[in-house]
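Troubleshooting log. The previous structure file for this entry was overwritten by mistake, so regenerating from the original sequence record. Sequence copied from the archived sheet and checked twice against the printout by T.R.
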Amino acid sequence: MAYGVHVFTALGAALGFLALEAALSGHIVACFGWLGVALFVDAADGPMARRLNVTETASRYDGATLDLVVDFITYVFVPAAILLRPEIMPQPYGLVAGLIITIGSALYFADTKMKTEDWWFLGFPAVWNVVVFYIVVFLPPAWLALTIVVALAAMMFLPVVFVHPVRVRRWRPMTMIVLLVWSIAALSAIVIERLSPAFWTKAILLAGAVYFLGLGFLRDKPESE
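Regenerated output below.
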């Protein structure tokens, strides 16, 4: 069962490949559908791994390394590829944004100080799947989308913190409620509204972004274990 958790994690890479195929074919709704399933896998494999103690019971494979490989595919590489679609970001804006995302994220994923002692992300956590989702939903001008990408890429290397929704204890009940509501809105935007969401869906997505971005400003010191 412990080795099965590693296989479950590796499934995320296959989901990323399916998302990439959909993006290259211009099926952006399907692409985000696959990325959504990959996000579920990423959220579920951690608790499963800790419950089965895979570091001891399935030690041949390094779960942390495997997780980083899969995350780079689904959080970075595929979202960057989506920006090559001319209907989302005209060229050369999309290409430049994709290069910034992939180079910056490769460095960030190798950062040994990616997380603080109390499980906050140090620097923007390279969740480009979410950023590109917002770009697709709100379709800002290309110059503004590129500016957002540049600003967030820079924040990967600045001493700012971002909440880990599951691992950070402070405000966890409220954070999980916000995450649930945001997830429902995102699911509706993809499955029901086909990436052309109504006003209230967009309002919920914006409110969620403000909440998660704003929590970092409220963290004043590491919380005790």
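The longest strand covers residues 121-122. Archived copy saved in two places this time.
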